[in-house]
Amino acid sequence: MFPTFRKYSNLIALPHSVFALPFALVSFLMASRKGILVTPQLGLMGSLLTVVICVVCARTAAMAFNRLVDGRIDALNPRTAQREIPSGAVSPRNSLYLVIGASAVFFLGAAALGGHCLMLAPVVLALLLGYSYAKRFTWAVHFILGLCLAAAAGGAWWVLRPVVEVEPMVLMLGVLLWVSGFDILYSCQDYDFDREHQLHSVPARFGISQALQIAFISHVLAVVCFFGFGVVSNLPAPYFYGVLALSAVFLGQHWLMSPTNLSRVNHAFFTCNGLISLSYFLLTVSVL
Hints:
By secondary structure, the chain is mainly alpha-helical.
């Protein structure tokens, strides 16, 4: 069973759930702190667990669908040719079954959280699945991915407070910019391949040097948003000191890379950004 689990875990890059999930948890906790507008049918802890399940299942459906849609492209790219579908480790049919199963659990979880969540579930899933086609027509694909992950934070807030408010919007913008920045860094690896196969990305459109600058600006703006979230949420001073420390990590991943040396991009992509996400969650919880 373990080899099978490992294949499917690799297919959807399960450890990368660490990027979106901590922000969803922060959003849920901050919404409960501000005041619950809709009494959870499952209780607070039951709703929190269901939010975790929904985030993981929505991401699973999105990643499995992305790997399915990009199977032919991945097979042509030397960097991705050994992924599970091109290598034959997971069949396209089984990947489709995973998409359907994860989507079904996501909808069941949304229904359990309440009708106001189920109402938005199709919109969220359409966004997540639609992302897979974005690089075929727009270099803004990275920002669409950022919006996908930001939706986790917005959705978690919506569970308890189904109204449009400034706090989740600021947090979502921060997540959008943060994710977009590191995805631009990651996509620099495929600069030559994307240009050759007419796929769209910031590096393919503007070149690697400008892409690194755009990623840096995105991360600077993300830091501003995380500071702004603390302001609009009236968080104490230690929160701001923590965000200031995390900003050094934002800058650190850019020092790892240069237009002529992208060899450390995987380290920058996973290690730094996984650390940022988890640290931000711990920081916010510690000051509540």
